[in-house]
Amino acid sequence: MDRYMKDAIEEARRGLDEGGIPIGSVIVHRGKVIGRGHNRRVQKGSVVLHGEMDALENAGRLPASVYKECVLYTTLSPCPMCSGAILLYGIPHVVIGENKTFLGEEELLRSRGVKVEVLGDASCITLMEDFIKNKPQLWNEDIGV
Question: Is 52 a catalytic residue?
Answer without folding.
Answer: yes
